[in-house]
Write a structure and sequence with these properties.
By secondary structure, the chain is α/β, with parallel strands linked by helices. The protein is built from 15 helices and 23 strands. A seven-stranded mixed beta sheet has the order 6-5-4-12-16-13-21, with helices on both faces. A three-stranded antiparallel beta sheet has the order 3-14-15, with no helix packed on it. Strands 8-20-17 form a three-stranded antiparallel beta sheet, covered by helices on one side. The structure holds uridine 5'-triphosphate.
């Protein structure tokens, strides 16, 4: 892809030369924006100008007016110049609350759970689901949350979350507000999905949608890409975009009006998510944490998961791609990985802490991700690239950790709490997530005393689905299922 950045655009076909001056004369209200496009060397955006209808021209200019072209240039230069891996000085592993293996730890968890339950009962916790991502790796054209996922009844991911919230509400006898962040790309489809399915039994008044900001996609030379002759390709600005969106879309004020003190944050694609886990809420409150995190032990040194560490005494999350090989393989004396706390993006976030971050004017940095994005070629036809050809700039929620002074990091068993749907096939796919759900239900039943056969990999032989409305966890299942139950290969409650 080669673009020329001339102070004019030449249209030999119709013998016309489009200059910046001409454009500015034609659209005086957009002078400032047109100037920025040319100054940033992005004038190729106007390549097809003479072919556009007046309304397409206006749409393109309106879009241009929303874009910070200087920032694109700055980000592109820093992404190109930044080394891929950063060896960190003064890296130390964080203190982690291990999941309850012995009686003392179990007793502590029970005590802490009461604190969490009490806050949930008072309606002080809201659920925040980030669902604004394009889900490009899945290669589907619908929002990821609408994807059918449960092993037998094929409920969507959104329905699964909704049923967990409904089950939680019954326990705490309250209505839990659910905030869902979408993007311009998937907001309408997401909201329609909820409406068409009557909000899965939730009260529509308790579900709030808000959109995050978008950012232009550039090619590997830093040129803004287009998918129509009058449209610049935009993608959501990363899950870190939630910080600005919470403030600017009035969500934080809405939460405060409702008496919310802490937010339970999770990503839409984790099908094993324990929504508003009272033990987690309890630890967060007991330690008056600003942000709390759930982590899982990394399976092996090269697992593609970000790790939670301290750098110079400050909490950080380092992306797997940014971790040096030395730190990746570092071991403790017992041979275990030194940096093992894998981030699963499940957080409790204190609202006052967020306000403090806003007041101090802190903002999150952008990271560059190289992706494969279809685009409009020089001749105006759509090109579906075979290789990565584009850079998306995204901010990440975990960059807020550097401002955190008080936190709780809680290790949880991966098989019980983390199974994200990222790819259509292979690892972290619908197939692995379904199997993880089946295996979890199988474990619950086995612990009750029901005989459930497994294969050599430990996978249940057969299919099981337990609706959150029937039992949200093993303890609840125990009160409803008899150990005499005979499993004949398929089981649904
Ligand atoms: P991922 O980084 O896995 O992105 O998002 P994705 O969009 O789901 O998938 P790919 O990378 O395009 O294949 C993790 C979580 O963060 C949300 C996603 O919806 C998912 O819940 N997210 C991501 C946002 O809400 N906004 C974004 O801009 C990016």
């Amino acid at each position: 892809m080669k673009h020329t950045h001339l102070p004019f655009i030449d249209y030999p076909a119709n013998n016309k030369i489009l200059t910046r001056e001409l454009l500015e004369k034609e659209y005086p209200a957009f002078v400032r924006h047109i100037e920025k496009v040319f100054d940033a060397g992005q004038s190729h955006i106007f390549r097809w100008w003479s072919e556009l209808t007046p309304s397409e021209k206006k749409n393109l200019l309106d879009q241009i007016a929303t874009i910070d072209f200087c920032l694109i240039k700055k980000l592109f230069n820093s992404a190109v110049l930044r080394p891929a891996q950063t060896s960190q000085e003064n890296l130390t592993p964080p203190h982690v609350i291990a999941f309850q293996k012995n009686d003392a730890e179990k007793e502590m968890a029970q005590r802490v759970k009461l604190i969490g339950e009490s806050s949930l009962q008072k309606g002080e916790v809201a659920i925040l689901t980030v669902a604004g991502g394009d889900g490009t790796r899945m290669g589907i054209s619908v929002p990821k949350g609408t994807f059918s996922i449960t092993p037998i009844t094929q409920k969507s991911i959104f329905q699964l979350h909704a049923e967990k919230i409904i089950a939680g509400q019954k326990r705490y006898n309250i209505r839990i507000p659910w905030y869902i962040m979408t993007s311009k790309n998937n907001d309408a489809a997401t909201q329609n999905f909820f409406k068409e399915r009557q909000f899965f039994g939730l009260n529509p008044q308790q579900v709030f949608f808000f959109t995050q900001d978008m950012f232009p996609v550039v090619d590997l030379q830093g040129n803004v890409m287009m998918d129509l002759k009058s449209n610049i390709i935009m993608s959501p600005n990363g899950h870190g975009g939630v910080l600005v969106a919470l403030k600017e879309k009035g969500v934080l004020n809405d939460m405060k009006r409702r008496g919310i003190k802490n937010i339970f944050y999770h990503q839409v694609d984790n099908v094993l998510i324990k929504i508003a886990d009272p033990v987690f809420v309890g630890y967060h409150l007991r330690d008056e944490a600003e942000i709390s995190l759930k982590v899982v032990k990394k399976c092996h040194a090269e697992e593609k998961v970000g790790i939670v560490v301290y750098i110079n005494g400050n909490l950080h999350m380092i992306e797997y791609s940014e971790l040096s090989r030395k730190d990746m393989y570092a071991k403790n004396e017992d041979g275990a990985l030194k940096y093992h706390a894998g981030n699963i993006a499940v957080h409790m976030i204190n609202i006052n802490f967020l306000e403090k971050v806003y007041q101090e004017g802190e903002s999150l940095p952008y990271h560059a991700a190289i992706k494969k994005v279809p685009y409009l070629g020089e001749d105006g036809s759509v090109i579906d690239p075979k290789q990565n050809n584009a850079i998306k700039f995204e901010s990440f929620i975990f960059d807020i950790l550097r401002y955190v002074k008080k936190s709780v990091i809680m290790e949880v068993p991966r098989e019980d709490e983390f199974s994200p749907v990222k790819n259509m096939e292979g690892e972290n796919s619908p197939a692995t997530s379904r199997q993880d759900m089946i295996n979890q239900f199988g474990r619950w039943l086995r612990n009750i005393g029901v005989s459930i056969p497994t294969d050599s990999q430990g996978n249940v032989i057969g299919t099981i689905e337990i609706s959150p409305g029937f039992a949200l966890d093993e303890e609840e299942l125990k009160t409803k299922v008899d150990k005499q139950l005979q499993f004949n290969g398929t089981l649904f409650f």
